[in-house]
């Protein structure tokens, strides 16, 4: 018995380990797609220093920030420690690589080495070819994203209309348990919305915008510091004001359910604003980095000065958000501090993934004796390519976000409007039967039934009002979650943008839940009927 239990435990641990490894491999594949451009840029840049093949593979294997570097380390070990020739080493490691594009690159490198092609020529050709391939793939992904963004908006409208139709069907046809039907419909609509979100995620270009280093930009540091506090306060306020009163049917707080949405959104709105500011600054730094690195390389190469001296000569009018980090970098280097630490701090404080990947390429290539002008052209070209592709993505995302936010408000208003209409008529019919016909005296059961059938008023009987409010609450919560995820996926960037879009949609949902019911009650109060019922 003990052995069986032990075997079962080991089996679960093994399964859990396999799942973890699979998730790691998926994450690695995503980073390899991005990092192949950076590692080819690095190898093409340092090859301008006319260093030998041993040095190229050695320096490349040390760049642990690039996901493919571990494979180049294995090639270096086979060649330098086990005395394989580089062509054979590349071929052997290529057999072990699962990523198709990296496998093909290593095989081509092996063939080029065997054919005697100079490393610099091969690496420059591969770098240019990969830029073209990546640009084509990115643009095809954008076309797919555009189609799925349109499909998602149609899916959102359809799911909202389905929720209304199901609600009306439950009111008209009393077949089965209405609560069970409505809860299942909420779950189904949420799954439909998540399907749309999943298809957006599959079609979106895999592009990382911010790094995950310990040293961060000021906005990223503040978000990391205040996120736990703001999220806990938002969750507690939302649960206390919206979830508990609605699901436990505490009628005193029912009219203030939307207040929980507004407060929760307001709690995380500062995080969202910081995230939006940081996203804008990172975009500007990425755009200006090409100008900065090209000017730096031109000054170092043309004037024959050190990098520190070149930093002091750069025209800072065109640096934008990169101006302050560059000034701080110059001051640190001029004080004689460790250059590696200074550059690492510069990379961290910029907060950009592209700057994180490309800065060390220029620094290492120049330190190895490479032509600063040529290296800066290579680095700025890779940077500019990615910045221009992101601008195309921003064009699509701006149109999508400009549509999804008002559409969210419209769909939430529609669901609440229909629910409030049904609630008013349910309460009115209940009042009519209990007050007006009760004054007739005697037994009114048959009279009520006959009038209900004749006027078809029985459709509003038997459906609890609190169930309608719970259904509305869950539907709005479901579309708020899915629209937040969809907005972030289409826009791209760091996960802190979820705070920005989530806070906006929560506040909009809350305002709609607070404003629409009083308007509906004022417009459909049926005063004449109430007066008749009161006589």
Could you provide a short overview of the structure?
The protein is an all-alpha fold. The chain has three domains: 2-117, no CATH class; 142-282 and 387-534, no CATH class; 286-371, no CATH class.
Rg computed from alpha carbons, rounded to a whole number of angstroms: 31 Å
Structural class: mainly alpha
Describe the biggest sheet?
none
Low-pLDDT ranges:
447-457
Average of per-residue pLDDT values: 87
Count of helix runs: 18
How many domains would you count in the coordinates? 3
Strand content: under 5%
DSSP, total strands: 0
Order of helices and strands: HHHHHHHHHHHHHHHHHH
The end-to-end span amounts to: 79 Å
- The helix content is over 70%
Instruction: Give the overall shape.
Output: elongated
Give your account of this protein's structure.
The chain has 535 residues and is mainly α. It has three domains: 2-117, no CATH class; 142-282 and 387-534, no CATH class; 286-371, no CATH class. Helices cover 81% and strands 0% of the residues. The protein is built from 18 helices and no strands. The protein has helices at residues 2-46, 53-61, 69-80, 86-96, 100-115, 119-172, 178-203, 218-247, 257-303, 307-313, 323-334, 339-350, 353-367, 372-436, 445-455, 465-491, 497-523, 527-534. The longest helix is centred in the last third of the chain and has 65 residues, at 372-436. It is elongated, with a radius of gyration of 31 Å. Mean pLDDT is 87; it is low at 447-457. It is found in: Cell membrane.
């Amino acid at each position: 018995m003990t052995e069986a239990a032990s075997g079962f435990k080991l089996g679960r641990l093994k399964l859990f380990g396999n799942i973890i490894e699979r998730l790691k491999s998926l994450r690695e594949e995503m980073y390899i797609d991005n990092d192949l451009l950076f590692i080819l840029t690095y190898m093409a840049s340092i090859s301008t220093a006319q260093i030998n093949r041993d040095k190229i593979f050695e320096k490349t294997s040390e760049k642990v920030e690039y996901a493919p570097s571990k494979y180049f380390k294995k090639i270096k070990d086979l060649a330098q420690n086990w005395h394989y020739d580089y062509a054979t080493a590349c071929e052997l490691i290529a057999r072990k690589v699962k990523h198709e594009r990296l496998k093909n690159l290593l095989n081509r490198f092996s063939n080029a080495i065997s054919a005697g092609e100079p490393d610099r020529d091969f690496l420059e050709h591969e770098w240019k070819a990969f830029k073209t391939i990546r640009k084509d793939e990115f643009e095809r992904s954008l076309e797919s994203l555009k189609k799925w963004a349109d499909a998602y908006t149609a899916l959102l409208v359809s799911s909202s209309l389905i929720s209304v139709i199901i609600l009306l069907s439950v009111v008209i046809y009393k077949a089965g348990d209405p609560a069970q039907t409505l809860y299942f419909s909420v779950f189904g609509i949420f799954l439909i919305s998540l399907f749309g979100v999943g298809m957006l995620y599959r079609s979106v270009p895999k592009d990382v915008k911010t790094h995950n280093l310990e040293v961060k930009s000021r906005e990223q540091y503040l978000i990391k510091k205040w996120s736990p506090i703001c999220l806990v306060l938002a969750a507690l306020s939302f649960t206390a004001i919206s979830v508990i009163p609605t699901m436990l049917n505490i009628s005193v707080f029912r009219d203030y359910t939307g207040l929980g949405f507004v407060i929760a959104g307001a709690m995380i709105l500062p995080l969202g604003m910081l995230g939006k500011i940081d996203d804008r600054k990172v975009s500007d730094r990425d755009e200006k980095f090409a100008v900065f690195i090209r000017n730096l390389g031109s000054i170092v190469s043309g004037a024959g000065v050190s990098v520190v001296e070149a930093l002091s000569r750069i025209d800072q009018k065109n640096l934008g958000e990169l101006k302050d980090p560059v000034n701080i970098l110059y001051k640190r280097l001029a004080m004689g501090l460790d250059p590696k630490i200074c550059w690492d701090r510069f990379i961290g404080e910029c907060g950009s993934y592209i700057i994180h990947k490309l800065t060390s390429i220029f620094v290492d290539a120049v330190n190895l004796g490479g032509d600063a002008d040529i290296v800066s052209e290579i680095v700025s070209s890779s940077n500019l390519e990615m910045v221009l592709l992101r601008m195309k993505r921003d064009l699509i995302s701006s149109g999508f976000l400009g549509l999804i936010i008002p559409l969210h408000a419209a769909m939430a208003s529609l669901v609440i409007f229909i629910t409030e209409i049904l609630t008013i008529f349910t309460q009115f019919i209940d009042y009519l039967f209990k007050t007006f016909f009760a004054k007739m005296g005697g037994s009114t059961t048959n009279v009520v039934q006959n009038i209900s059938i004749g006027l078809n008023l029985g459709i509003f009987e038997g459906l609890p009002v609190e169930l309608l409010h719970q259904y509305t609450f869950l539907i709005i919560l479901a579309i708020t979650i899915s629209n937040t995820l969809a907005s972030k996926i289409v826009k791209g960037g760091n996960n802190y943008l979820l705070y920005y879009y989530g806070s906006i949609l929560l506040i909009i949902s809350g305002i709609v839940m607070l404003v629409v019911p009083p308007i509906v009650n004022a417009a459909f109060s049926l005063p004449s009927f109430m007066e008749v019922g009161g006589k």
